[in-house]
Amino acid sequence: xxxxxxxxxxxxxxxxxxxxxxxxxxxxxxxxxxxxxxxxxxxxxxxxxxxxxxxxxxxxxxxxxxxxxxxxxxxxxxxxxxxxxxxxxxxxxxxxxxxxxxxxxxxxxxxxxxxxxxxxxxxxxxxxxxxxxxxxxxxxxxxxxxxxxxxxxxxxxxxxxxxxxxxxxxxxxxxxxxxxxxxxxxxxxxxxxxxxxxxxxxxxxxxxxxxxxxxxxxxxxxxxxxxxxxxxxxxxxxxxxxxxxxxxxxxxxxxxxxxxxxxxxxxxxxxxxxxxxxxxxxxxxxxxxxxxxxxxxxxxxxxxxxxxxxxxxxxxxxxxxxxxxxxxxxxxxxxxxxxxxxxxxxxxxxxxxxxxxxxxxxxxxxxxxxxxxxxxxxxxxxxxxxxxxxxxxxxxxxxxxxxxxxxxxxxxxxxxxxxxxxxxxxxxxxxxxxxxxxxxxxxxxxxxxxxxx
Length: 453
Hints:
By secondary structure, this protein is of the alpha/beta class. 30% of the residues lie in helices and 26% in strands. The chain has helices at residues 10-21, 33-42, 55-60, 76-89, 102-111, 124-137, 216-222, 240-251, 263-272, 286-291, 307-319, 335-339, 349-358, 439-447, and strands spanning 2-6, 25-30, 46-49, 68-71, 94-98, 120-122, 143-147, 152-158, 181-188, 191-193, 206-212, 232-236, 255-260, 276-280, 299-302, 324-328, 345-347, 365-371, 377-383, 404-411, 414-416, 429-435. The strands form four sheets. It has a six-stranded parallel sheet with strand order 3-2-1-4-5-6, with helices on both faces. The protein has a six-stranded parallel sheet with strand order 14-13-12-15-16-17, sandwiched between helices. Helix 6 packs across helix 13 (349-358). The radius of gyration is 23 Å and the shape is globular.
């Protein structure tokens, strides 16, 4: 696939890096020579210096030959203008634009993204707010992702030393009397593996578990974790992420307090949020945190624009006794490091944006993509096509590469955790775990079988 990326900032850089590693033909257009120098030092892609909203530069960058145009500069206007010109210059290309302005987002929701010649709008702040709200819905998990319109959940569960599953083989976990779930991947020692039935659960494993929505609580209990609902939430930072999280959490009946240091923004939050206590203050102020009894909160989320403050604030909350902590980190490279500090959830708007872009790069009818934390593995949701080699035969007979696993199947709204005897039919929704080295082989299986011709 040929991809034109407009904007070599954090999102554009990491998207280009991911695609170049997968063998895609990539062109990066940016007006900052220093940003392009960093791109050229790290990856084998073509770069071009110039404004992203210039039709002349788009032509020079090969927009007419591009299958996908991704506009992710820091300017909404540049991104939208670039997509409008791309529509004229490359009618068959898919166009993705990063948009942050609330005014633009509200307009696009009312009129549809096609009104501005964009196929899909990415808003990293909303993506991150969604991740946080998912986490709040299952606080025992380190992360939560939705598939099959929410009927299938992907939970990452940290295995405690007291878990009854420690030392047990995976083939022993699914019993007729217990909840039906599948440990599709395990992160151990910083490395993600697709386990086999004879592999055992270890203490401190991060298990990626696929489960039906209605069986979340029994699965969490089976891992020896607590499934108490969140009743109180404290959010530090009243920007877009904090506001969205506070608004939705309050609508769910959660007691929410939001701490914001900017007085003018506090007044705006008071006007916009109902059922939320807005406090004017500094989230790094220990006396304020103690005065507000932060240690009694179920979840404490630090989502200001300063990632160093966020890490410090979340660590302070952890020290004061908060049950679960969340920290927003901007730089993608910091996410694995910060995750080792004992914080329960580390979120990055830029990581969320890269993950949202991935679904347009996968062959086959891809409905959703979720990248795992180290980016060495991902989960894709696809609709099975009649031409696919996966269709019409038991999964045990399908030559899935080692490092890939069909973890769930949704047929007409009925979810099944598949076995080797499961036969995939056209139209089924499949949730597939895969390691990056086997991506190309899995994509080939998802598209056209040689038997079809």
